[in-house]
Amino acid sequence: MPSVTVTVRFAPSPTGRIHIGNARAALFNALFALRLGGRFVLRFDDTDRERSREDLKLAIADDLAWLGIRPDLMLSQSDRTDLYDQAAERLKAAGRLYACYETPDELERRRRRQLARGLPPIYDRAALKLTEAEHAALAAEGRRPHWRFRLDGRSVAWTDLVRGEQIVDTASLSDPVLIREDGTYLYTLPSVVDDIALGISHVIRGEDHVTNTGVQIEIFEALGGPVPAFGHYNLISTVSGEALSKRLGSLSIGSLRAAGYEPMAVASLSVLIGSAEEIHAYRSLAELAGHVDLARVSMSTAKFDPHELDTLNARLVHGLAFEAVAERLADLGIPGASGIDPGAFWDAVRPNLVTVPEAAQWWRIVVEGPQMVPPSEGEAGAAPTPADTAFLAQARAMLPPEPWDETTWGTWTKALQAATGRKGRDLFLPLRRALTGVDHGPELKKLLPLIGWRRTSARLP
């Protein structure tokens, strides 16, 4: 018997930009396929005609490409309605899809009566008891039916890739509505039809879909399609415990990208939080794929901490060679017409960066002076004391002649220490503040040759 090609899918609704939680879904699937030599399908679930937008499809695909995910196939459900119509007719003919006429208010009143009687608030299948004459009378009133799938009402079991043995009792569920009154489809039927048609072998998604899986397995079986393997990973929240949503724009992939984060820092943290794996910033999806095991994903909600992302991002940035960032630095205006070697500049500042764009701030400090960068809270900003002013004037008088290299800082400060008796913080901090405007930053032995004699002299009294 031929082996089944591993085929997975990521199925976003193009109603907003994807956030870190959506990226987690896409990455789990893409990495699973990458690890097993499979295929990755990007399917836009755009059956919500009013809210779905073509520009958001392009934006989502662009965000995925930034993360390193390039689908083997990309398609939209809005182009596949004929397939869903055919499947719906088959289910109707088999007695599995039936017309219902209740209004939302009628259903709510019925639900309350059931609760008052101590009964589960599930749909009572009253529509199955309607006669042809009653159907005709309801239609004559102008009512248009919605269509429900008749569940078997049994225990549906599967071995989950994350959660192990799972059972959903569909007898405890309402028959799900698959087609709205206006004839449009809800998510459930198109998803199953597409999974069958596209040969999806594994459905990897969030744990909020566990109950849906019991329903969908019954629909797979009713349509005679192969049932894929399922895996339901834990969801992620903010540090405060708030669930992620598209309204949290600060955690959208687009905003993280615009803020200068590295795609592999975002990708690594997205899939490694809430698992037994060590959180590490891997340099490629291929490398990361070898460290993502669905069986080692926790059952507890994972919390996304932006500070953790900063830490991972900084590790990646600190390891980036100049050649890897040269184009990005040029886009930031580095080197411009300054005459400063951009490679030497990058070597000097990268150990102090969290993101690559932060290099632009240090470039302005080197080229234009500390006054161009307002001090942060708790940093330099107060006028120097008279003693420091006198010290800085003496430092200016003792500036070594050019050419300068990485030994210049040590030579200069040793001479100043011998001449003034200052040492430690009293020696170095006034110089750093005068030259950069802040209390911390790159090693001055590397920064000083970039600033040069002329600029250094101009920054000292």
How are the secondary structure elements laid out?
Blueprint (H helix, E strand, L loop, with lengths): L6 E4 L9 H17 L2 E6 L9 H14 L5 E4 L4 H13 L3 E4 L3 H13 L15 H9 L5 E4 L5 E6 L3 E6 L7 E3 L8 H10 L4 E5 L3 H13 L6 E5 L2 E3 L14 H6 L4 H10 L12 H5 L12 E3 L1 H13 L3 H10 L10 H8 L9 H10 L17 H12 L10 H13 L3 H13 L7 H16 L2
Parallel strand pairs: 1-2, 2-3, 9-10, 11-12
Antiparallel strand pairs: 4-5, 5-8, 6-7
Helix pairs in contact: 1-9, 3-6, 6-7, 9-11, 12-13
| Spans of at least 5 consecutive residues with low confidence | 372-378
Q: Can you tell me the CATH class of the largest domain?
A: Alpha Beta
Radius of gyration: 31 Å
Structural class: alpha/beta
Which word captures the global form? elongated
Binding site for ATP: 246
GO cellular component, one term: cytoplasm
Motif ('HIGH' region): 12-22
Catalytic activity: tRNA(Glu) + L-glutamate + ATP = L-glutamyl-tRNA(Glu) + AMP + diphosphate
Care to give the gist of this entry?
The chain is of the alpha/beta class and 461 residues long.
